[in-house]
Amino acid sequence: MSTVLAAAQDPTLADFGKDPWWLVLIKIVFAFVFGLLATLLGVWFERRVVGRMAVRPGPNQVGPFGLLQTLADGLKMAFKEDILPKAADKVVYFFAPTISVICAVTALSVVPFGPKVSIFGHWTPLQVTDVSVAVLVLLACSSMGIYGIVLGGWASGSTYPLLGGLRSSAQMISYEVAMGLSIVAVFMTAGTMSTSGIVAAQAHGSKLDILGANVTAPGWYAILLLPSFIIFFIATVGETNRAPFDLPEAESELVAGFMTEYSSLKFALFMLSEYVSMVTMSAVTTTLFLGGWRAPAPITTFWAGANSGWWPMLWFFGKVLILVFVFVWLRGTLPRLRYDQFMRFGWKVLLPINLVWILVLAGLRSIEDWDRPQRLLATGIGAGVLLLATLLWPSRKKEPKPTPQEQANSRPHGSFPLPPMDLQVPPSPRTKRVVAEREPANVVAGSDSREV
């Protein structure tokens, strides 16, 4: 009984830094192997799911259910010719793919995979390490990974890779802000930046005092902080360059974006970094908003040991798999956004909503210690200010849209000619001649039918 209770304990910051070197090495190798295996299975999973959505089989020839197709593709890339452009910066061109992969794998070091367990007689958390600012380490890794894309596009010495790299830098700046503000809500609610502490804070429901009534909020921050969860996941899709936000690659516009001049293993490393980042951000989302390695509430109600031993790894991997499926689902469903739509969505939609939500959450947290009359007064003042702002908000009259002919007439003299207003190709002379020859017959047929 004591062993079960010990296994069910949540790890704290004091539990890290005490493991022997060989145990730390095992954890590091496990995190690295998890990233590689998740990539191999993730590529196969994406092909199968997208194939299912497109009503086609997907890979099913190499190995059982096509499981070895990804391994065969990796071996094929390894034996392809490695081409180095003449205008490339050789050193940066070589190290750029490794930067993206290293940053993506490093982020897994502060992700908790489970509680404390016994490994060869040593009680240790299923996590490589944890610090008091572990979430900032995750943000730093996601930000540094963009440098591999930017430098890869610049070092190729070509136009299209450079444009793809510049797009990635603007994309990172736009969506990193929204991602950081989403995590602020988690800091405010959990009271810690430690990843193991955030998982522990979601163990039980939060006690909230709303207008004098004690309310038990759900444990998962995906429910308690729903706006932050939605914005954070959208930002992770933008950070990982996944569709519909895969603008740095953009095959229809920039050939292959920042990877245009890469081949062989360097190209494979860029692909590896994308899928490792997808799995890593799914694991981070699970840790911050979905209770981490803890089992869902329906399971814990009839199984007391669901959160002890090695079972929590099953719940953790299940949640990560569901989020990876959502990534694949988005790719198979939504088309790619235009670049101006993408930037407008990040700066004019996600950022204002996030700021307002953080302000509201901070206000709710600040009035928890007030007495009932003060809370009622604050709520009334806030509602009055919101109503007054709504009434006084200047309404802009929608100007009538000019007709296509008016737009054509307003163009300066000597400008380029406009295409037809109805966007139809004018009929050819042959078509006009055929129509003219058929018109008398149509008139005669019409007169006969009317007489009948």
TrEMBL record:
GO cellular component: plasma membrane
Membrane topology: Multi-pass membrane protein
Keywords per UniProt: Cell membrane, Membrane, NAD, Quinone, Translocase, Transmembrane, Transmembrane helix, Ubiquinone
Record InterPro entries: NADH_UbQ_OxRdtase_su1/FPO (IPR001694), NADH_UbQ_OxRdtase_su1_CS (IPR018086)
Pfam families on file: NADHdh (PF00146)
Main localisation: membrane
Catalytic activity from the UniProt record: a quinone + NADH + 5 H(+)(in) = a quinol + NAD(+) + 4 H(+)(out)
PROSITE patterns according to UniProt: COMPLEX1_ND1_1, COMPLEX1_ND1_2
Family: Belongs to the complex I subunit 1 family.
Protein name (Swiss-Prot/TrEMBL): NADH-quinone oxidoreductase subunit H
